[in-house]
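Structural prep section.
Before we set up the soaks we want a predicted structure of the protein with zinc ion in place, mainly to decide which crystallisation condition to try first. Input record follows.
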Amino acid sequence: MTMNETTIDELKAAPSDLEVPGTMRAWTLGDPNELKLETRKTPTPGRSEVLVRIDAVAICATDLDVISKGPPALINGGLPFNQDFTPGHEYMGTVVAAGPGVDEYTIGDRVAVEIHAGCGQCRRCRSGMYTSCTNYGRNYGEQDKGHRANGFTTQGGFAQYAVNHVNTLVPVPDQMSDAEAALAVTAGTSMYGFTEMGGLLAGESVVVIGPGPIGLLAVAVAKALGASPVALVGTRANRLAIGGKLGADVLIDGKSEDAVARVRALTGGIGADYVMDCAGTEQTINEAIHMCSRGGKICLAAFPHGLASIDLAHAVMNNIYLYGIRGEGKSAVRRAMALMAAGRFDATLIHTHTFNLADLPEALRYARERVDDAIKVVLRPQH
Ligand SMILES: [Zn+2]
Ligand SMILES: [Zn+2]
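Run finished without errors. Recording the tokens verbatim:
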């Protein structure tokens, strides 16, 4: 484990060997919270697939849910436990083998990897909404629709290699570090939220609630797309400070200030054009509704774990639109990567810790308990 700056140099020194070994190391989920590092056969890519040597994989809060509870992972129609399943979904790496029909990528190409390939044949996939595939998890037995979501319905990234559909791959610029490229998936989720709310943000006001990884990069993406002003609501000073570095014009301490009143004052009394709630509590969803302007839009990028009592009447009477999002659809990772490649924001500001493959349990503990104020913890599977 090292801090940010050292880490990037170390990641650039990742092994350049492109030869594919017959076996690889992979973490396998047994019972809940039981992970075993095993040696398995290296998978072979099929039609329209490549084998990616995983050079960096970031840990996400959803990984913690999958490992302890199961959903949203769905393996063979059921819970992911004791099914030789490898979690991990926010990864990047190097193409080391290509299956039949692949001419889009060549051996040695560095790629970031979107999570969802979808089935490609349901109504949602056909309209480009492959993260809302209606055949989610149906990729086994007689009902095999070919749905793929790395680390949820197919093998994931806490391993040295993984097979990926070409549709999920996004080229990584030469100068970008492995760790930064792995964060393109997170930035893609933030980008997808804005896409679903309407997409064009220049000159419009945006409030992000919750400075976790998606919230912090939502600030960065909104700023890069020209939103003005961009406000961030949080409760921890150090997280708000990072939001400031990523482009937030206004930082609001949700503990000591009335966030709704601050946003109303900031927007001439009318409220924000867009609110992205990345905290997902009953309180923050209600704040989002009350700080949103009449006719404004709210993206629900996180959710309460139980039922929530929210002021729907206020939303309805004010023509406020609510958007739920799943994952990073409509090629959002590719679009987020374009902003990152152009240097429009520094995603590595949220990368705090790095571990080797064998240290996954400790890396997960850092992410879960926010040890040393961990935000994004990155694993290096080739080390
Ligand atoms: Zn994730
Ligand atoms: Zn589908």
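Observations: The first strand starts at residue 23 and ends at 29.
Flagged for discussion at group meeting.
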